[in-house]
Amino acid sequence: MTSAVEPGTAAAELSEAGRDQGAARRSGPLSHRRGGLEREGGTGTAAAGTPPDGHRPLQPLRGDNRHYLPLWNNEDPYGDVWVPDRPPVQVDVDVSKLTNLGHLEMTWRSRVHFHPLLVRILHKSRLRYYGKPEKKMEMPYQAYFEVADGSGMMSMVLWNSLCPEWYHSMKVGTVLLLAKYAIKSSYPFKTHPTPGDSQMKRFATIEICLNVRDPPTEISIIPEEMVKPEWGLPEVKYRFITRSELDDLPHNHSCDVIGLVTFVGRAERARKREHSEDFWLYRWAHAIDGTSDQPFILELFATSQPDVFERIHPMTYLVCTQMRVMTENPSRTVYLTTSNESQIFITGWHKGQPYTKDAKVKNFIQWTKSQSEADQIKKTVIGGYYPFPRPPDSFLKYFESVLKPIGEIGKEIEDLHYREHKRIAVQGIISAIRYISCSNAAEEASGGELVQVWCVKVNAKAAMIVIRMENFANEFRIYVHYQEGVNNIAETEESGRTCGSWQSDLWAQVKDKLLNYFHHSKIFPESIPCKFDYVHKDLLMQQYNLHAAVHQPVEARTDKNINEFKSANGLGYYEVTVLGINHDIAIDVAFLPLFSPDNPHLFQLEDIQNDTLLSCMSCISACQQKATNSGGLGDTFPLSDEIVKAAKELDGKHVICILDMCHLGDDKVEVFLNKIYKTVEPGVLDPV
User: Which GO molecular-function terms appear in the entry (predicted)?
Assistant: First the structure.
């Protein structure tokens, strides 16, 4: 068997490391300080994104501040001011002059100056940016750590200018010698990680403050080889679980996981609060560990590790610490989400991490050695729309704040920021469905050929064929639009393909009298999950990450087009028309049947089992794909009788539609239909 190892390193890196250890649409990162903007001089460094070939990146704009904000969130360190790694220094540790955390808690009120501390970092939080436009603070950052000695564990806070100087160097497992620090009462509302050692005492009433002044803290990193057993410093312990153990864990349980990534979604943003200009940056991932046929489903928020977050891709070994189990969610599907103290690591970042000595990590590495890389890579998918977590079975369980008048759809879309994902609900009537097939006929054509795409528009009174030329390297798309009639089927001369549609009698009566008609059923390359191609992983990661924060030279890019990659679901999608309950406004949205025959656990059909229409669309598409793969269905994809029957059952009835919207850049906005609620269901009231 060939080991499923990322070429070059992963299992070896983990096992060797174990042996070694005994704003939104801004065009550039702008500061939040008021004042004029000027282009900064100076040279870039590799840590700040300078290409390895020596080309200098375009210098961003900044204001009066001494730092830059990252483009798309506030938690990531960005710019030359953030020191990569401070090397350990030779320090003479006089243990007779040290104090410990337990003694510090008992005596801190009676002292002004404190003896030095010798501690090990057990947990590390993401950065917190607390700058405000009206406040003049040069470096408004803080980061929490949990540090421990032989007496117990206590919080430590790195403040302001010390963050860019020390944050990267203070890793989990690092031993610190601290002098001239301050002590204050603990902030009562901060989060707390779950210690790996449940018996460790926690000193929660006070916290250690590291400041650049008043007093200026002295910080020394002690090399691991100099750490002596008699110092009594605790080892870093973890709470790793396997996938087979996950389903039995309670909600909000804290754990660590390791797995082989089989899917990673595109990077998206969500507002921290309604109408806020601050965004969380996140993505979804799946990872397997061989103990279950189900993957870990991971919701990964940015953890102030942008170099890792941006390079998560299928076939890498992913470690996530301090994850929280989410069982009390509307979809009832168990998944894990990052906490404030989570850290993520992928192949290339494992060496030297304390978890490499953990027994479950070693067991995972043994499992990967028995796996075939060729078999595993067939199951991998990257990017695209990911409709998770699913909405609840009853709309009553949903927050009323997501319900919007259908007439406000335009404003909701206009207010979206780059890669912002938003889920809303609208009330309306399912009035028309069209199946749009995407053929792979052009796969046989050589790359770059001009392929004729026939756009057929059928009308009950007259038919008009419009032919347009588009440059598709690997995909032949046939768009069939029906304006009138029920179950019309049109066939193109070129391919012999047929596509179906359904429309209600009501739609035929009102569609020409609408006050507003929003057309948002178009999907884009970023919307489609792709089969992962290891040779072109850099292009795929670039496609599904956010726009880069630094200039990328032309010679560093690839000429391969994203359209050339094979879709993970391979068929087409549905255009669904939702008519407002007053019959004067309508919107076309897309429904993308997500089904991967190579990895049926990636997009699970049972997730929409209580939604008859969408279940029919997904199940029929799954059957079509299976039949196509076996050569049994040929090139005919009519709108099935089951779909038409389910649509007719909703004819004229008021429903609530859950829509997922995402701004993909430029003027590209996708709007996907996620869930349909009947208003006759318990918990959903039909308006008077």
Answer: single-stranded DNA binding
